[in-house]
Every structure is written in C-alpha cells, then in structure tokens.
Amino acid sequence: MTSPVAVITGASQGLGRALAHELASRGWALVLDARHESGLATAARELPGGPHPALAGDVADPAHRRDLVDIAAELGGASVLVNNASTLGASPLPTLAALDTTTYLRILQVNLVAPVALTAALLPQLRTHAGVVVNLSSDAAVEAYETWGGYGSSKAGLDHATRVLAAEEPGLRVYAVDPGDMRTKMHQDAFPGEDISDRPEPATAVPALLRLLEGNLPSGRYRASELLATETTELTEVGA
Known about the structure:
- The chain is α/β, with parallel strands linked by helices.
- The chain has one domain: Rossmann fold (3-Layer(aba) Sandwich), CATH 3.40.50.720.
- Helices cover about 45% and strands about 15% of the residues.
- The chain is built from 8 helices and 7 strands.
- It has helices spanning about 15-25, 35-45, 60-75, 100-130, 150-170, 185-190, 205-215, 225-240; strands at about 5-10, 30-35, 55, 80-85, 130-135, 175-180, 220-225.
- It has a 7-stranded parallel sheet with strand order 3-2-1-4-5-6-7, with helices on both faces.
C-alpha cells in the first residue's frame, strides 16, 4: 500500500519539525521545506522511515514551489499540505506606523501569498486524494495586539483565504489552525530578551493537528487548545 504524502513547509524547527516527526513515525511519506539547508537536512535525517525529500528554499519563490509540487507528484501525489512557514518580518516587532513597506510586503509574500500559491499548485494532487490543507494561523489574526499588525494582518488574510478555498473546494477539508503560544524561535524573536520557558513545546500541539489530518471535522478555523480539550472530553465519555 502506498504511503500517504504530506508536504510540510517550515519543517526544520518548531511545530513543522514536530509534526513531521510524528507523521513519519506513522508511515507517511513527507516532502519537507525550510529556508536553511543545514537545519532542514538535520531535521530530515532524524525522521523515522524515509528517506524524506527535503528541499531548502524560499516559499515565496515560484520556482521553489514548483519543485515541491514536482517532488510530491513523484511520490504519488500529496494528500496533505501543511502551510506552516511564516515570518515575523522584524524583531522587535514595530508598530504599524513604523513598519517598513518592504518588510511588510515580505511578511505578506511569505505568510499569505506563498501558502495560497502553493495550495493552488498542489490542488490537482489534493483533489485526486480528497486531501487536507492546514494553514497555520495565530490569535494575532483575530486580536488587536500592539506591534503585531503586520504579522496579524497577514494571518487574518490567510484565515479568509482558507474560508474561501473551503467554499470553492468542497471535496477537500481546509483548515486554519491557531496552535497557541509555543516555545519556538519565532516566538522568542517576538519577545527578544524575555523568558518564554513557560510556553509549551511545539509537540504539545501536534495531537490537535493529527485530529484534523486523520479525522473528519468539517472545514473551518480551529484552536489547538479547543481540539485537545474536546478530544479529552470525548475520551472521558467513551471510558465512562
């Protein structure tokens, strides 16, 4: 039986790396992306099974996206796309009034344009497999946090694009997921010099993503904390 194929962007660290490890341990074939070759190669080597193709590059680069699509096709076609790669743009985070236009355009290219474009390029494969698209969002997409305007507006745009794609592609399951605060490099960059050791490790959000990938929840926007809480409740009710 052919292994299901998942394309995961931003897979060299944080949540992308944790999810890749779990899917690989479950027998999935993976196509991995990240900007930095050394970190991505290390992450790929540590995965069970494989080999899992790992292609370093910029998701905002159309040629790099085409390469990811082609590799997925060679493996039998993607049944899952996880748009996890993101950028804050600057650290420390500036106010909107101080946000450089070039920096803002880069945020939008990576966090909004690239996921939409990669999804569009993979749609023929995803349709064939009645697949799943997971777009990593943030509470900054729906809450007005000072200095988070650039990043938050990019994620708000991605949330809306997720809803539109779900309406246009009823044969797919399309999700926007807020994983919550995590102990990641990006989160540390958002709070330079602060102690973020009280934030949970990225792996704690992986079961929530698995519930979407392997379940049958309808397309929509979900928070990892709610998915984990309802799963615990359901398990308790079953065991009662």
